[in-house]
Amino acid sequence: MTFTIPIENGDAGKVAEAESQRTLYPYVTGTSIVAIKYKDGVLMASDMGGSYGSTLRYKNIERMKAIGKHSLLGASGEISDFQEILRYLDELTLNDNMWDDGNSLGPKEIHNYLTRVMYNRRNKFNPLWNTLVLGGVKNGKSYLGMVSMIGVSFEDDHVATGFGNHLARPILRDEWHADLSFEDGVKLLEKCMRVLLYRDRSAINKLQIAKITEEGVTVSQPYSLKTFWEYSSFHNPTASAEGSW
Length: 245
Prior knowledge:
Subcellular location: Cytoplasm; Nucleus
Helix content: 25-40%
Shape: globular
Low-confidence stretches: 1-8, 10-17
Distance between the termini: 41 Å
Pfam families: Proteasome (PF00227)
Protein name: Proteasome subunit beta
Order of helices and strands: EEEEEEEEEHHEEEEHHHEEH
Largest sheet: 8 strands, antiparallel
Radius of gyration: 21 Å
Structural class: alpha+beta
Strand content: 25-35%
Organism: Camelina sativa (False flax)
Number of helices: 6
């Protein structure tokens, strides 16, 4: 959104106009990202929906991207702000490659950079309206962290954004373990995404799962989950709600 700021010119007594662009409110948004560590690296899942307000307007948006050689980034929230973050990271990795010193930025460095960016923009009252998940593997060590739109960050063995933080994290706390195989990790993520599909109106049944290991990043082709909608509680979901008719 563009708005005009009048600026008083003291010498000439004239008013100049300066234009600034800000994301005043998220318009096209993506919902939950769910990510876990497994024995060989990190797995991350995301659907491909983009909501214009409450309308599922776009159904082919990729919200997981490889960053450099060792990192994988996923984002919930405003899609245009995510694209801006990717431009920042392109510049960062290009500058890192130009040194040509045999070193490259790892996931911990990228996570720290994103934390500083999000906190800096928050302090300018011009936040990037995203919650970010950053996973990676470097020197045999898996890394997984999250950054909120105001710069709050942490590391964990499993993370989730949006509704996933409320609906998927309890499942992960019960069923995640450190020596998960790739197949078991995918099944666990699919279980979380199925619950979100049932309960989150912004979720769609078209998802991707990405993995990152020492060999690099692989993102699956989009696919759909098998669902079952004949549960009795789905037929009259407000039957036991207080104040329902």
